[in-house]
User: Fold these one by one.
Assistant:
Number 1:
Amino acid sequence: MDQKRTLIQDMAVYMVEEGRSALTQSQEWGRLARRLAEFKDRSAEEADIVLKGLLERSGILREPLPDEVDFLHNTFKEYLAGEHFAAEHSTNKLREHVFAGTEGAESWRRVTLFAAGSRRAPEAFVRVTDSAVIERASTRVCRNQKVSPLEEVGPDRPAAAPAPVGIAVPDHG
């Protein structure tokens, strides 16, 4: 993975983990300086130049307000974070956040879907994620209809086959 992608992905993971939609440039400058020091051909002193270059040339970062950095769209942030968690095989962390019911759970759900769809995701992770997301979506649909998941299936109501993840999951309202 090239350095630019590594730096942007690191920012995405940090923002998702912290539940942030934006960072101040001074916050990101410090994180970037530490990360640059890890590269053989870079130094922490380059953080200012590198951050400016990422803002100007990456195509997915922007400066919406003076001294603020965010992703042009949250989908970029969630995709990059999902790729990271898939590569790290962070199944438990993703499940924990998706089912926590916290304010950021919806963002974590999208990160989890990107992780499950990644070519870097282990097969067991994809199966567990598919089942968990379908179960969660079914519960959400039932809650909206004021019917429990167990009441949906009975002797006269056979269980429906689970919908594909892409269909079962969307819920932005």
Number 2:
Amino acid sequence: MTEEQIVDYIWNREEKGLRELEEKYENYCYTVSYTVLKNEQDAKECVNDTWLGVWNSIPPKRPNCLKGYIATITRNISLKRYEKKHAKKRENEAFITPYEELSEGITAGNFFEEYMDEIVVKNAIEQYLSQVNKRKRIAFMQRYFYMMEYEEIGEVLGMRATSVRSMLSRMRKDLQQVLIKEGVHVG
């Protein structure tokens, strides 16, 4: 069944759409969630919450790319669970998430909560990523969308973790310059 057909079923409130969605994307959503949480049970629960999130958001939204849409829902649910589970740890340690790492230098609070929904920032990031080579795009997405560790990204790209860290640091600086040009306040 195609993505469009699945969306049509869900749009028309037919549960067959959810069954097809689960059958087609359960493993993918589990991978997205597990990468964030590193916990099998939590990841499974987040995937189940994803189906409810999709059901509740279609309609009114009608995604063009269902796979990306459900990945975003899964990741956001997983991030919320991660934040909740690690709140105490963060109070006691200098613990930084990939999102906080990416938002360093942005002065208007949490970058992703404050700006990510704004079209100007989305477009700036998309424009920036379209101008870098494939290896950099992959590293960026793996770190800041899938929240993979430097070591994991290095294994995928055949690089040392320190090289990945350096490359992403340079990319964040470059992205900050793009955001400045787009009028986003950076510190």
Number 3:
Amino acid sequence: MSEENRMSAATPAAIILVADDDPDLRDILRSVLEPSGFAVIEAENGDRALEAIRAKPPSLVILDYLMPGLTGPQVCEQLRQDVVLRHLPIIMLTGKSEVHDKVAGLNAGADDYLVKPFEPMELWPASRWCSVGRAGTWKPIRSHGCPATCPSSGNSKSG
């Protein structure tokens, strides 16, 4: 086994929790994230998301804004009040594109806010949260900010 294979086998994949009531969107996110080496956990609503996060905290949380039970902003607020989980990076991925919705999502504790429909490349800069967490400094996975499977946009983003 080569040194590179040994290192990647020993390094656990970053876990991303995807909470959305749309199973098709969860499938799309899984198909985009898993080939890039992320492990994906799914939740169909905010209540299940909190259960999964408390059972095994992920490296990154991707939340829909409107879900049955707890909404995305409500999940954010609960996570930010939890001394153990408040550091988790959270991306709100939603169809709610009005400025007041974005402000409400960010005020609830989301670190980033992406609007559906989205391009998969939009996730790569956000996925850098997995390498350091909320309290750290962003470090790009590659020099242009994308994992190896992400086609380069030609823009160099570092730091």
Number 4:
Amino acid sequence: MREAAAANPKFAELVRQLTERFPDIGALAGALGGWTAASFFVLCALWGKALLEIVNYMEHYGMVRNPATPVQPRHSWNTNRRLSSWSMFNLTRHSHHHAQGEVPYQDLKPFPDAPMMVGGYLTTIVIAMVPPLWHRLMTPKLMQWDREHASDDERALAAEANARSGIAWLQVPASPSDRVAD
């Protein structure tokens, strides 16, 4: 780990931040197992942070909302896959969380009319890590969300976001007359 830190200043800074934020745990890991345990602790912390960011990304990917309106169940992707629900402590009921944030996780219920992910969480995590596949599978879902769930304000926000995204599949003309001939 010291060699990696010496070779990469960004990695060294990340290790420094982790040990500042979790000095007791990092020190305990180092005291009990030396550099091997401390390295394992850092790797687990990095994996945990990466997983948190991937899940947050896939739960809200492409969703737009007028900041003046309250968050609603339609503003997050949901899944009702049982294995994902069991393994992720009902995180799959994300839309219910958006509707009622005060409800304990074990009491969250499925919202069958909420926008649905391409699969369960475990599958979707893997798909999200392959951008071409992710965009290919999620673009139709985003277009469906625009049609079926978005308000008029959100459709306008979505059209602006789609234009800025640079993703070719989202560059859909507003009307047939706007289409460019091949």
